[in-house]
Amino acid sequence: MIKVEGLTKVFKKRDGSIFKAVDEFSFEAERGQIVTLLGVNGAGKTTMLRMLSTVLNPDGGEAFLGGHSIRTEPDKVRRVIGFLSGDTGLYNRLTPREILTYFGKLYEVSAVEIKKRIAEMADLLDMHEFLDRKVDVLSTGMKQKVSICRSIIHNPPIMIFDEPTAGLDILTARTIVSFIHKCKEDGKCILFSTHIMREAERIADKIEMIHQGRLLAEGELSEIRDESGLDDLDDIFIHYVNQSRLLSEKVAADEY
Amino acid sequence: MSIRKIIIVFRKEMLDLFRDKRTIITSIVVPIVLYPVLMIGFSAVLSRQTTKLHEQEVLIYIVDNAQDEYSETAVEILEETPRIQFYQPTDHYTELFEQKVLQAIVTLESEEAADGYSFLKARITYSRVDERSEHAFNRINEALQKLETELIGRRLQEINISQDLLQVIEIESDDVATEQQTLGMILARILPYFLILVSISGASVAAVDLVAGEKERGTLETILVSAAQRNELVLGKFLAVISIALLTVLLNLMSIFFSFRHLISQAAVETTIDIPFGSLFLVLVLMVPMIIFFSAIVFSFSTYARNMKESYSYTQPLLIIAMILSFVSAVPAIETTFGMTLIPVINVSLMIKDIMLGDLNLFLFLSTLVSTCILVVLAISFSISLFHKEAILFRTTEDTPVKKGGKGGLNILTPGFAVLFFVVILLLFFYLGTKWQSQNAETGLIMTLVLLVLVPTLLLIKLGKLRLTDVLSLKPTKAINYITILLAALPVFFLTSLLSQIINLIYPYPADYLERLQQVLSFEGRSFLYILFVMAVLPGITEEVMFRGYFIKAFREKGVWFCIIASAILFAVLHLDMFRLIPVAVIGIWLGYIMIRTGNILIPIIAHTTNNVLAYSFFTYGEHIPGFQYLLQDDQFAWWTALPALVIFYFLWKIFDRQSKPFNP
Q: What CATH code is carried by the domain that includes residue A21?
C-alpha cells in the first residue's frame, strides 16, 4: 500500500548551507500491517510523514500510496490517507458534528453517508453527549476522539499517525492505541511515528529506524533483535546509532 | 479546482469567524454603536464650546495716551459695546495680560496728519492663539471700525459733503454652496480616512485568524492533508476575508451615513438634507477593489507570520502608512490629477472626496479604478503564491541566525543591521547633509559623500572586525566587461532620462524644484576635471562602496533579486528626492545586477561614474556637443531615442551576459 523509494528532503538554512532532513529513505508497508517509524526528535520523522501526506514536496525520490504518486497525483494520495497527529487540530469554535461534516464534504463524502458515519463512530467511541458542544469546552480525551473520527471520516485504506500519543495521558493514549489496532483489524495499512521505544515494541509489526534522515535498520522486532544480538529496543537503537556514527567517521577519515 | 470546495471552505470559515467575538466586535458592534455615540458626543461638546465663547465677557484694559475728543469717544463706544468689560486702573496691565487675566490691551495715541487734522491710532495687543483673546480683538476692532465710519461722516459734514459719498463698494456675500455640498465637505474629509482604516481592520481581524490562527492552533496541517487543494483552501479563505472586510466597510458606511443624517436633521435646518444614494454606491464601487487589495496584503502577512501576534504586528505599519496616505483627502490644496490617480490609497481617498463633493471626473474615476484593480491582481497573485510556499507555510520556528561578522566584531552583515544602519544614515542625511548642501552646494556635497557615506561604511566594516575585501569584493573579471559596462552607461543614461521624462509628464516637476537642480549644477570658475571629480568620481566611489559593497552583501542571504532590489531602493531613497525616486532605483538595480554578475565593485563604480559624467556633460554642455540638438525635442530627449538606446543596451548586455559568471537567483 505504501512504497517509498529514495525519498529526500533538503532544507536550506539561513546561512545558505543545506541540511538533509530525509536522506534517500526507502521502505514499504502492506495492508493490515503496522509500520513504525522510530527515531529521536529531529530525526526526520515528521518531514517524512509530511512528504507522504503531500504537505511537503520531496526534493528527490518518489513514493506511492495506494498506487498513487505523491509527486504527480497528490490529490488522489490525500483521498486514500487519513492523518492524525498529537495535536488534535480541531477548530475550537465549531462543534464536533460541524467539523466532521466539513471534512466529510471536503472528501466529497455524500451528506447521507457523513451522517451515517458520524452516528456509527459516535456509538463506537461513545461521543453522543458532546457531538453538538463546541470543541472549546471539551476535554483532551474528547477532542482526541473527535480527531480520530475526523481522520477516518472518508474511510481511507491508509492511516498515517504522527506521534499520536505525544503529550497524552494514559487513558487517552490507550484510546489511540486501540484505535490503531482497530484500523489493523479493518485491513488498513498503518504508518505510525514515535520516539518512544516501548510503544514501538508493543504495537509495531515492522520497525523502520530513522536517524539524521537516514534509514538505520529495519525489519520485524524479532529480526532486529537477532541481527543486533540485543534484546532491549533502547539498546538496539543506541547500538545502531553508534554503528552509523563509526561508519560516517570512517568515511570522513577516508576522505582526508 | 472545484468551485464547490471553495464554497465549502468559505462557508466553514464564515461560520467560524462569526463565532469569534473579535470579528463580531470589529465588524458589527463597533460600526453600529460607535458613530452615533461619537457624533452625538462630538456635536454636544462642540456646540457648547462655541456658545460659551460667544457669550463670554472679555476683560480689556485701555491706555489712553491721546486724551482728546476722539479717544474719549472711542472709550465711550467700547464701554457701550456688549460683553466688553474694562479692568480697573492699574500699572501692572502688561503682567495681567501675560497672566491671561486681560484678553486685550488697547493703546490710544494721537497722531498728526496732513492739513492739520489729527487722527487716533489704536493699537490692540492680543494673542491669536488664545481664542478668548481673539474674540476680544474682533469685538474691539468691530467697534472701532464703526466709530471710524461715524467720525469720517462727521468730518465730511463739516465741509458740507454728503456722507453717501463714502459708499463706493458694497459687498454682499452670497454663498452658493448647497447644503449638500456643505454636508459633503465635512463627510468628504472624514469618510475616506474612516473607510480605509476600517477596511484594513476588518480584513485583518479575519485574515489573522484564518492562516496565522490556524498555524497557532495546529489545524493548518490537518486541513492541508485533507482532500481540498491548496488553491481551493486559499481562495475559500481569501473570500471569507474579503467578505468580512466588505461587511465591515458597508456597516461603517451605513452607520456614518445614518448617524450623520440624523445629526443634521436634529440641527433643524429648513431643507431636508440628503446625500444621494448614487454617491454612496460609487464610493462602494471604489472601495471594493481597495478592500480586496488590503485583504490580499493582510492575508499575506497572516500567511507569513508564525502566530497571530506576529501577524497583528505586521498590520500596524500598514495601518499607519494607509492612515497617512488617506489623510491626503483632508488636505485642501491637493487636487485629483491623473498622476494622483496612480498612487494607491491616495487615489481612492481623493476620489471619494470628489464623489462626496459632487464633482466627479469620469476619466479620473476610471483611472483610479483601473490602477487599483491592477494592484489587486498583483497583490492576490502574490498572496496566493505565498500560500504555496512550504518554507513560509511551515515557518513555525525561528532558525538561529548565522554569525557572519568577523571574529569578536559586530554581526553587521544581516538585513536587520543593514536597515538600522540605513536609518541612521538617512537621518544624518536629513539633518546634516541637507544643511551642509544648502549652506554651500559644492563643499556640502563633498562633505556629505565623504563624511556621511564613505566614512560610516568604512567605520562599520571596522566595527564588524571585517577586512575591507570581505565586504568590497574584488573578484577578477574579464577586461572586456570594463569596456562593455563603460559603453552601456550611455544607453542606460538615455533610458533612465526618458523614464524621468515620463514621470515628469505624470507628476510635473514644480518650478522651484528645477531651479534648485540648476543651482546644484553650477560650478563657477572651476576646472572641468575638478567638477568631474566632485560630480562623478566621488559619488561613484562612495555610493558604490556603501550600496553595492555593504548593503548588497548584507541583504544577500535573502536572495539575489532581493538584495539587488532592496539595495537599489535604499539607494534611491537616500537621494531624498521624490521625483527622481524611480529612475534612480532603476539605475540602482542595474548597478546591483552588474555587481552580482561580476563580483567586482570596480564594475559598478565605473558604471556609476560614467553615468554621472554623462548627466553632467549633457546638462551643462549639451548645446556645444556636435549633433546633440538632433537628439532633443522641446528641451527634452526625443522619444525615438529610446529605440536605439534599447537596441544598443541589448547588444552590450548580451556581450556582458556571455562574459560574466552565470546568474542563478
A: 3.40.50.300
